[in-house]
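Example record used in the benchmark description.
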Amino acid sequence: MNQAAPECTCNLWVLSGIPYSHAIAALHRANKDPQKMLANYYHKELFFTIYDNVFRSINGDIQWPQSDMLEFDPPASVTQPGRPQKARKRDITERKDHGKRLRRNVVIHCRKCGGIGHNVATCKNPPKSSSV
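Model output (structure tokens):
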């Protein structure tokens, strides 16, 4: 990092005009103020000098010209009854299974008796005999 001119080997400081973390650390090590190394167009005084003639103060709404149009009030906000929806509303074209594999045409087999339609936790049949 070159402390005399605002430049660094990463060239981020030259491109943006703002010293980055490594440059700020080097400036603190050298007891220099990083705010004084900012580009001039980031200083508040230059901002006010540039935009001094652009922004004019607005006198209150009492001095605004009156309009012949009707005045409209914003619509009344009504909170819907019920618990707020957690998930977003899905489009018609999106899958309904939320990315999970569907269990259509999957037959459950019991490990205990070998029966179909239940598992070992709900099996009331005697265990099948194993022929060893």
